[in-house]
Write a structure and sequence with these properties.
The chain is mostly helical. The longest helix is centred in the first third of the chain and has 29 residues. The protein starts with 7 loop residues before the first helix and ends with a helix.
Length: 297
């Protein structure tokens, strides 16, 4: 019996929302390149140990390893560097909103390459989710004043482009990984291969461009702890849940659900920063929930 686990994208969305908050300090201290290098090392270790303990590497072929390495290079290495460069300039909410474009890229890829269909109910649900995310963007506090998270001087236009480009990379990386996980490879093992490949690429960048990608400040125990926690939440749990969703359902729907981080981050910021969400944020949350309900009705 075929499973439909696109709803796991919602789990990934929540985990990534939490990870955005955890990432604020280490991204500002280390810079996007060094932050991603350290968190990929951490996630490679976490996922590698999990895959070894569960025997996940037993049936993976050389061709599948190559595909997962390509997926990691595009979706994690290139995409995450672009995302956190955007994050460093625009803050967690705006960068997260721009990153949600990966959902719409994924819908297009699913229809073009995986024969996925867009029924009227799905289209209505996607529209409601898009409406919720768009309202969050339009009325965002970070749009009205300088972000308290900004730690970069790159132009806003370039930061916006990098956020959208990160979404395209994410969608492309998942599309490359989908045939591999559908072939029966453990999503945990697949995730570990993706992470390790991305980490190797980052180490090569450090070797050849040390001044450009070196950490801004030395790694302290506190910063390393936050990086490890971010890696465990976002890459260890979040990305593995996303691969389960892609493996057992529509890549487009899974990506749409995973795009809800900008809305899910609102209650987290309310608790963590004591910032009560605006009325528009509640409307956005209702729209996202309604869209999800319509899709599953």
């Amino acid at each position: 019996m075929e499973l439909h686990l696109e709803w796991l994208g919602l789990v990934s969305s929540f985990l990534w929302a939490v990870a955005f908050i955890v990432a604020v300090i280490p991204v500002n201290r280390l810079g996007s390149f060094a932050f991603n290098r350290w968190r990929m090392l951490c996630s490679s270790m976490i996922l590698g140990c999990a895959a070894l303990c569960t025997g996940g590497y037993g049936n993976i072929s050389a061709h599948q390893v190559i595909l997962m390495c390509l997926s990691g290079a595009v979706g994690i290495c290139i995409g995450d560097v672009a995302l956190f460069a955007c994050f460093n300039r625009l803050g967690p909410r705006l960068s997260g909103i721009l990153f949600t474009t990966h959902a719409f890229f994924s819908v297009a890829i699913g229809m073009l390459f995986f024969n996925e269909t867009l029924t009227p109910a799905r289209a209505a649900g996607i529209f409601l989710i898009f409406l919720g995310v768009s309202v969050t963007l339009y009325f965002s506090e970070e749009k009205k004043k300088n972000s308290t998270f900004a730690a970069s001087s790159i132009p806003v236009g370039i930061a916006v482009f990098l956020g959208i480009f990160a979404g395209l990379c994410q969608a492309s990386g998942l599309a490359i990984a989908k045939p591999v996980v559908e072939a029966g490879i453990s999503p945990v093992a697949a995730s570990s291969v993706r992470m390790f490949c991305a980490f190797i690429i980052h180490m090569l960048m450090l070797l050849f461009f040390p001044k450009r990608v070196a950490a801004k400040q030395p790694v302290t125990l506190k910063v390393f702890g936050l990086v490890f926690l971010n890696a465990f939440i976002a890459l260890g749990l979040g990305m593995t849940m996303m691969l389960f969703a892609v493996d057992n359902g529509s890549i487009g729907l899974a990506a749409i659900f995973s795009s809800c981080s900008p809305v899910m981050i609102l209650p987290i910021m309310w608790v963590y920063y004591h910032r009560r969400p605006q009325l528009s944020s509640w409307f956005a949350a209702v729209a996202v929930v309604a869209g999800t309900a319509v899709i599953f009705s």
